[in-house]
Amino acid sequence: MTSSHSDQITRYGEPEETERPLGRSVMRGLLNRCPNCGSGKLFSSFLKPVDRCAACGEEMFHHRSDDLPPYLVILVLGHVIVGGYMIADAIHHLPVWAHLAIWVPITIATALLVIQPIKGGVIGFQWALRMHGFGGHGDELDDFDKSDPA
């Protein structure tokens, strides 16, 4: 079924939006870079994201990455640290104080090293999926969600 004229796709409804690849956006966030351009810094201080990208001007103040990054850090760290502790305990029978002296500093250092990239990844995730105002719309409720509880 070939035709001599070019097949054009007709789109109805909302205007076409630019593509925001999820993997690329999350990876740029993990690298603490702007999910839009990949060159601007995402954080102005340790865990404080910039309001706008200095390179491309993309607004970043829409993000809602308050609780998810610490949960992901706990999830990742719990598996790594507990697994490391169990392997170390099976190989070397150390007293409890020695395990505490080893694993507590490793846990704190690792948590501090991964919290910022994970928060950046969450911001990149939200940006790619146009969540919380990143798509040009607000977080206000839809008409069917505005029910009066009275």
Describe the structure in brief.
The chain is mainly alpha-helical and 150 residues long. The protein has helices at residues 22-30, 68-91, 96-128.
Task: Tell me what the structure shows.
There is one protein chain. Helices cover 44% and strands 0% of the residues. The mean pLDDT is 85. The longest helix is centred in the last third of the chain and has 33 residues, at 96-128. 19% of the residues are buried. It is elongated and about 70 Å long. α1 (22-30) packs across α3 (96-128) and α2 (68-91) runs antiparallel to α3. The chain has 150 residues and is mainly alpha-helical. The protein contains three helices and no strands.
Secondary structure layout:
Elements: H1 22-30, H2 68-91, H3 96-128
Helix pairs in contact: 1-3, 2-3
Shape: elongated
Describe the main β-sheet briefly. none
Mean pLDDT, to the nearest integer, reads: 85
Percent of residues in β-strands: under 5%
The proportion of residues forming helix, as a percent range, comes to: 40-55%
Order of helices and strands: HHH
What is the CA-based Rg, rounded? Answer: 23 Å
What attributes characterize this protein structure?
single chain; mainly alpha; elongated; 150 residues
